[in-house]
Amino acid sequence: MKVIYFRIKSAIVGAAVLLGFLACEKDAYLTDEGLHQADVSLNTYDYLAAHPHHMFDSLLMVIDHFGLKDEINNARTFWAPSDYSVSRYYQVKRDSVLNENENASYSFEEFLQELHVDSVRAYINSDGSHWLGTAETSYTYVANPAGSTGFAYHKILQPKGQWTYQDIYLLYFVRVRGEADQVGPDGNVRVDRNDVPDLHILCQTSGIKTASGTTLNVLANTHTFLLDFASLTDTGPFIEDLPDGIRFTYDVSFRPASGYVGTSVVAPATYIAEVFRLQTEDLSTLLGNSIVFYAIEPDGSLNSNSTANAPGHWFNRDGKVVAWGDEARIFSEYNGDTFTFSIGQYPDRLASGDTYTVKQAMVYTNRNNQQIRAEFVFNITIN
Predict the structure, then answer these.
(1) What does the pLDDT read at residue 92?
(2) What is the CATH number of domain 238-382?
(3) Mean pLDDT of all residues in the chain?
(4) In the chain, what are the domain boundaries?
């Protein structure tokens, strides 16, 4: 099995935050409003509520729903997901409901009812103040009130940039999956290609000290609230190296139905970004420009014409792209904001025991005019 080393790339905002640490006094930090003091006069809950751009309003709704205000204020450390993160999970849940019934509705209140309080408590640490200043390159494991294990944090040395010759480290919150990844002296990790990698979530701001005694670290907007912590199954994706990229193969199944329903798959954005040598958020912003979405025809040719909701395609029984109509059997549509494929069926046209294989790809043309592809193969069983 091929072993790879990869660097977990940082968001630009994360680099800006840490450059603020380097350039300023150690009790200052950088936010989108400029330079502020790391020690703030508000308790943790009120500090989140007072954000000038309301970046934590959805998170506060979750906290209020479970009555966690006191726990948040009394926490030694809180790893705060932004509204972008909460919204990502809500959209995934909503898409799942609509895949079952396209006429259904799914409110945020219904979303709250389906959450579990102990899952939310995974972001709360009661065992100490954890931030960039206390981080090692190796994992430091942390405890949460739910008793959930497998959470840690560490720092990773970043490549030298033009702005400084000093060593720059970024802070990551870690969800360990299975056996912990091997960590090098600089914090970068070693993973077998088809082993499940640990999840590393960049902290875009670290070390805010609230008046209630909490150390607050704000997670990157690309984090998907709770869903990133879920266990991955052995059914996919199976990951293969290609001469010009990477291939992800999934085995999925759903029942025949009288609606445009099926299932959904969240693409491994971190791996795709690594192969493309981009930041994860670039996968969304460049889609439709230097990243082009295709179907892969049975003869291996690429088809960029969307025949379902763009970017997406209808396929016939042989996996060939067709228009909606008599030949259509399976559709696969991609949501670039949530990295989610919605895979479904033409109503009343499939039967139990049917199998289909459909293929799609993202092709990135970099600044050197090299094309790198990420292929997605869906082996579908109707059960």
Answers:
(1) 82
(2) 2.60.40
(3) 85
(4) 3-229, 238-382
235-260 pLDDT, tens per residue? 458 888 899 999 999 999 888 888 88
Give the tens place of pLDDT for each residue, 113-157. 999 999 999 999 999 999 999 999 999 999 999 999 999 999 988
Q: What is the 3-state secondary structure (H, E, C) of the chain?
A: CCEEEECCCCCHHHHHHHHHHHHCCCCEEEECCEEEECECCCCHHHHHHCCCCCCCHHHHHHHHHHCCHHHHHHCCEEEECCHHHHHHHHHHHHHHHHHHCCCCCCCHHHHHHHCCHHHHHHHEECCCCCCHHHCCCCCEECCCCCCCCCEEEEEEECCCECCECCCCEEEEEEECCCCCCEECCCCCEEEECCCCCCEEEEEEEEEEECCCCCEEEEECCCCCCCHHHCCCCCCCCEEEEECCEEEEEEEEEECCCCCCCEEEEECCHHHHHHHHCCCCCHHHHCECCCEEEEEECCCCCEECCCCCCCCEEEECCCCCEECCCCCCCEEEEEECCCCEEEEEECCCCCCCCCEEEEEEEEEEECCCCCEEEEEEEEEEEEC
Answer yes or no: CATH 2.30.180.10 is held by domain 3-229: yes
- What are the tens digits of pLDDT across the range 167-213? 889 999 999 987 888 888 888 877 666 566 788 888 999 999 999 99
Q: How high is the pLDDT of residue 3?
A: 36
Residue 231 confidence (pLDDT): 64
Q: Which runs of consecutive H residues, i.e. helices, occur in 153-276?
A: 269-276
